[in-house]
Amino acid sequence: MSAPVRFELSPSPLLALAIVAAHAAAGVALYLVVAGWPGVLLALALLALGAAAAWGRALLGSPAAVRAIEIGGPSPVFHLANGESLAVAVAARRYVTRHMVVLPFGNRTLLVTRDMLGAAEFRRLRLWALWNRLPSERRNVAPKQLAA
Length: 148
Description:
Blueprint: E1 5-8, H1 13-33, H2 37-58, E2 66-71, E3 77-80, E4 85-87, E5 95-96, E6 100-105, E7 108-113, H3 119-131, H4 143-147
Antiparallel strand pairs: 1-2, 2-3, 3-4, 5-6, 6-7
Helix pairs in contact: 1-2
């Protein structure tokens, strides 16, 4: 069996901006429904909630934020910012696109966007999420291709 592969996640300003923008839009919609100062307070509370969610999940500022993933052992290991490590299986139902990977594990869900990893690492994570195995480093090349 090969050594585990570690994916170090970096903060995603684009995801943080999207989270805050979604909460701001919800705050505006709420203000349109609840007019006056109660609507303003509720909209500001939603905006603050969005800022907290962006800080904790997209900018990886929370102590419970996943900072690294190790794949290659019996089950993936999620390393948190507070130093804890969780070795738990990822649910079979995953969501993978060319822009993001959603990994449900335990009672949590991890969203990894393409700017949180390098291009090659993100591709490897996507392949693992789709097929539950990492691509091999060794390429199977036909002898005629090597001669060319």
